[in-house]
Amino acid sequence: MSDDGRTISDPWPVWPEGFTRGRRNREAALVLSALAGLRPRTLLPVAVLAGTAEACLRLVVGGELGSAADRRFARVVRPEQIAAGLERCGARAVGWDDAEYPAQLRAIHDPPFLLFVRGGPLPEVRSAVAVVGARRCTALGRELARTLGRGLAEAGVAVVSGAAAGVDAASHEGALEVGGPTVAVLGGGIDGAGMGRRRRLLERIEHAGALVSEYPPGVAPAGFRFPARNRIIAGLCRATVVVEGAERSGSLITGSHALEFGRDVFAVPGSPTNPLAHAPLALIREGAALIRSPEDLLEDLGLAASGAPPAELEPLERRALRALAGPTLPERVARELGLGVAEALSVLMGLELRGLVRGVGGRFEATLAGAKALAADDEGRARASAVAR
Description:
alpha/beta; 9-stranded mixed beta sheet; Arc Repressor Mutant, subunit A; Rossmann fold
């Protein structure tokens, strides 16, 4: 892969040189970006022939391009109104012809002709990894996303995601916990329209990294905008990690985009009976690399893993963790350990206080830290046994 993310030579059409260059083209591009019915995929082939944003806008106003609603809107909206909205939210417009435009997005299918950015510069492709997954994720999925975000940030990699609830937010928060860079690609306007309670998260991301959107201020998130947003997430990054996702989910779309662009894709497998395992398992069938932990990901990316050593386990704690193949009732753990339920609960609650297990609806399951501690304990016991022989 080259430094701009290319793996094959120019497989798709791109915006013509000079499309957004100059004041009149920049103003026209601002108006074009605000048209709800004219998507870049529809505009791009016309732009290749028309040559400039100004020429494309004339076609819209003249009724030769876009919808009737687009035509009405283009006749009344003023580019200075959009520019004022950008100034109010502290955003800047980055056009196809600008030096700041990310080189890696030039290599994808249907690249945006205009980006809106808040915060710092966008990372180079080799310094960015996407972590995506389900909004209504499991507790384990949220923990894994946070740990992935933390590990990537500690390795100096910018964590890119969509700032949605669940896996996206957890991956951003993991990076923020260690003061690492993170980038959120929004499915609505760059001002965060419609983000509600996640506005505080957006502010933190803006100060640590950047917010990106192809939509100007005031554009509300809509269903059709999220798949478009996902191509930018995948396009910005050297690799995409899919933690959880259902059939036809946004995370599956993002992973598929990354495969299409020739970028690395990693997926965390789950049980075939779990609907949230559909996206990772489907991507693994298509060629994504299977990972079990942040250590797997960092190793495959050629990055050094860091962090505290695994917790040491007492014999009873080891047996209790081994009994937790999934969310397990304490009564079953008690039978496995040959203890009373109260005694087994005492062991489990001690493990929970150390962050090695968690309670889930009256059951207990191992956390990532618990699984890591058990694996390290097994490895240590195997080494000791080999030495003894």
